[in-house]
Specification:
The relative contact order is 0.16. It contains 10 helices and 15 strands. It has about 260 residues and is an alpha/beta fold. The termini are close together. The longest helix is centred in the middle third of the chain and has 12 residues. It is globular, with a radius of gyration of 18 Å.
Length: about 260
């Protein structure tokens, strides 16, 4: 088999909102004993342990080290810089990942080393004011991701990118580091965790051209676009980043390519 590690998105691949994407999940079950499966999501609202629970509820096998979310990646980046203090615009899952990594999260302080901005369905003007103040005062501005939307049942909702944009405008600074896809640093992180796997043995599977597919192209690994999320075939023609493969579902890809 050409691929030894599948890097799978969650929103739009394993589920869409509360809906489980059955054909994709069926394919994952078929592949679990044949390739290494790592789940990667830009969504920082849940912690990795929460994602483990939800993935297992779909009938899939997973351990916490098989899950990467943008909150965990942001925490690893801060640790790579020596750690420090952080102010968070985000939900409890993001704060949990930072705290577990040993980063001190402060709610009200004179200054912090980092401002980490992720999806926050409880975003307030006060959070915006504090975040922009800290950044203007010298804090490193980290975005978990800049996704403008994320898929839900039959629709899309505003993503973390809308909040990142608000903080950027208010502070007058663009993010210094974007933790989630399409940052190719993620592939380096995976390489450190799985040193026996080469780039040409990795396949990125996702539903978005600007994050999943862009990640693969930037990192020099193959990509599969599944049409179970926010993108249709007609969107691919004018896209900057084009996938190696396109299929309606992951199950279609498995059947057509004989990945099994």
């Amino acid at each position: 088999m050409k691929y030894k590690l599948l890097l799978l998105d969650l929103d739009g691949v394993v589920w869409r909102g509360k809906e489980i994407l059955e054909d994709n999940v069926k394919a994952i079950r078929l592949l679990e004993d044949k390739v290494k499966i790592v789940y990667l999501t830009n969504n920082s609202t849940r912690s990795r342990s929460e994602y483990v629970e939800r993935i297992r509820s779909c009938g899939l096998r997973v351990e916490i080290n098989d899950v990467l979310n943008s909150g965990y990646i942001a925490a690893q980046y801060i640790i790579s810089r020596g750690g420090g203090t952080a102010f968070v615009v985000g939900e409890p899952g993001l704060t949990e990942e930072l705290v577990k990594a040993g980063i001190e999260v402060r709610v009200d302080a004179r200054r912090v080393d980092y401002v980490v901005v992720g999806m926050d369905r409880f975003f307030t003007y006060n959070k915006l004011a504090k975040a922009s103040h800290y950044i203007r005062d010298g804090a490193v501005f980290i975005a978990t991701n800049t996704d403008s939307t994320f898929p839900i049942e039959g629709d899309v909702s505003p993503g973390a990118g809308s909040l990142v944009a608000a903080v950027s405008v208010a502070s007058g600074h663009k993010p210094d580091f974007i933790a989630g896809k399409p940052n190719s640093w993620i592939i380096e992180l995976i390489g450190e965790k799985h040193p026996g796997i080469k780039k040409e043995e990795i396949l990125v599977v996702g539903d978005r051209l600007d994050t999943d597919i862009a990640l693969g192209v930037k990192a020099g690994v193959d990509t599969l676009l599944v049409l179970t999320g926010v993108v249709s075939r007609k969107d691919v023609a004018g896209a900057k980043y084009k996938p190696t493969y396109i299929e309606d579902t992951l199950l279609d890809f498995v059947r057509k390519t004989g990945l099994l």
